[in-house]
Amino acid sequence: xxxxxxxxxxxxxxxxxxxxxxxxxxxxxxxxxxxxxxxxxxxxxxxxxxxxxxxxxxxxxxxxxxxxxxxxxxxxxxxxxxxxxxxxxxxxxxxxxxxxxxxxxxxxxxxxxxxxxxxxxxxxxxxxxxxxxxxxxxxxxxxxxxxxxxxxxxxxxxxxxxxxxxxxxxxxxxxxxxxxxxxxxxxxxxxxxxxxxxxxxxxxxxxxxxxxxxxxxxxxxxxxxxxxxxxxxxxxxxxxxxxxxxxxxxxxxxxxxxxxxxxxxxxxxxxxxxxxxxxxxxxxxxxxxxxxxxxxxxxxxxxxxxxxxxxxxxxxxxxxxxxxxxxxxxxxxxxxxxxxxxxxxxxxxxxxxxxxxxxxxxxxxx
Length: 366
Hints:
Blueprint: H1 3-8, H2 12-22, H3 25-32, H4 39-49, E1 51-53, E2 68-70, E3 74-76, E4 80-82, H5 95-106, E5 110-113, H6 119-125, E6 132-136, H7 142-155, E7 159-163, H8 173-177, H9 183-186, H10 191-196, H11 199-208, E8 214-219, H12 222-230, E9 235-238, H13 252-263, E10 268-272, H14 278-286, E11 291-294, H15 296-328, E12 341-343
Parallel strand pairs: 4-11, 5-6, 6-7, 7-8, 8-9, 9-10, 10-11
Antiparallel strand pairs: 1-12, 2-3
Helix pairs in contact: 2-15, 5-6, 5-15, 12-13, 14-15
């Protein structure tokens, strides 16, 4: 990373501000918006703000290890992954290739969406040595799914994710009100296949591809987590699509404990939903997440400064995490426990960017 980028972006909110300046209004609303009343998105933030820390002191925290585990196969620099986001090329021309190179340079995985450029093979070729997962929206029958799994494995992906919370496309009213139709949405077809997807299809995929690590993304209840485990799914991924699908859903962090309890160690648990600061990541791990997806957060970096912007987001996040762990009295994530948290009443009204209070202080030059 260039010294210029490090000097330019010394806080997260500076990347958010730069992203907003660079993006046109339609794409900015795509990035920060959600569905209908946007309640689920706000609850993601509220859920994170509803926990306070219980720090322990007088422990030797002179050395803090903030690395994580990826599928029991390798260490990653932070227990995070760049979550699948459609049309990353709207934020930077290189799309998933640019984001993937940043993820590899830093040392964390990227989950590549099936609706972003430069596509399945192109994204993998741009990131040959990095840890990567391919995520599929189902737009065809059994042959369609099997073909994508084979292509992903041939291209070097480490695991395969199927998104399961998009049976119907939601009403994104920021777009509708401006009559903005995203180009990737306009050419989308085959939604009926996603709508008809069932547990029987998951059972068939599991039986057909026994050696592929399967992830179900979009689990929102302990009941469905239990069924996923019964179907041999290795990773149960708690997500509400960043509040972009079902309105008036629960915040992801509110869902996480019941999923962890339902899984009971029989599968790995990942989650995403509103993660914006290092303290958010620590809370998610404390409540049982092994890997935490970053969505809007890395997209701010991508829009602000391409590969260097994403890398800078990850560097700042790591700094925040290490500070948080050390002040909690923990030298690694292995020492982070639910007992370090206490339920509290949030002090800030939730907003998509309420984790960045300096954005709301123009009198200070922000």
